[in-house]
Amino acid sequence: MDAFYASVEQRDDPALRGRPVVVAWRGARSVVCAASYEARKFGVRSAMPAVRAERLCPQAVFVPPDFARYKAVSRQVREIFARHTDLIEPLSLDEAYLDVTQPKHDLGSATAIAEDIRAAIREETQLTASAGVAPNKFLAKIASDWNKPDGLFVLKPAMVDAFVAQLPVGRVPGVGKVMERKLAELGIATCADLRTHGADELEQRFGRWGRRLHELSLGIDERAVSSERPTLQVSAEDTFERDLLLAELEPHIRRMAEKAWAGYLREREAHPQRIARTVVLKLKTSDFRTLTRSLTPPEPPASLEEFADIACALRERVDLPSRTRYRLVGAGLAGFGDGDALAPRDLFGAYNPDSLPRSR
User: Fold this and answer.
1) How far apart are CA 71 and CA 87, in angstroms?
2) What are phi and psi of 211, to 5 degrees?
3) Is 12 annotated for ligand binding?
4) Where is this site: Substrate discrimination (predicted)?
5) Are 308 and 276 in contact (CB under 8 A)?
6) CATH fold for domain 84-159
């Protein structure tokens, strides 16, 4: 979907059409959820601090998010997808992969299906969507962004090699600014440059992600579209009204752990065999630097108290100056796996937070 949250707001309020719309709460603690294309011309982007967005575009109209409304529209769009295939892998409220290798209706080609879906979305929701048609998920993701907004890009198999070769590495999903800089230090700016480095060399430098990068540089992506996406993490986070020191965070970490644990229990109720092994602590400094620390203990956390103790103890792994202040904290559970693979737990055992390794 194109600028989804902002587009829904512009659709529902004619006074917002053609104006720079920023979906966010106003204030120093808020971040941008979405920006209309009119706002993006001024450099406003999602996840940007709202105060910076206001500086970049003083004439922007700030609209508080209404996620219930966005979810309702998302369900409409998913229903349109389901007319063509049951192999739908949602990535978020506004994005999904569809495998149309064996569609419900023979429209002649994947391109025709994409055109039919986009037309139905426009007619039934009065919103626009962009689509990418390609042989695999990596390429379809790239293609879907190629002609935004309200566009369609078709990447046929014969085009793949030349198309991927010229891609800047920054366009590869998963390559952020830090990885882009590391690759630049090796003289790697495009996927063609990546190809000149062997998979073994890249794996030695960057672990499994290095080998994956090499595959993507060749346009290879064997991942199937999965309509049952397993939960990867259950978490909760909060932004404070004022920045706090690390030593002041414990009650807030425990509060977020309580929320995350409630979500984890709901996940376990739906999928009893899925057990989280890893505790994650997320922090954001007053200058918007994000830190994460994690630990996979010998036994998965078995109670809220155990989970919260580990999350609080993970502060020991933060090596910033003690005067550093933090604007956000989050706690989560990750590393989900099949509980049958775990060794039986000592029912009288208890986790000792003092045993947390101090190594960084």
Assistant:
1) 20
2) -65, -40
3) no
4) 5
5) no
6) Alpha-Beta Plaits (3.30.70)
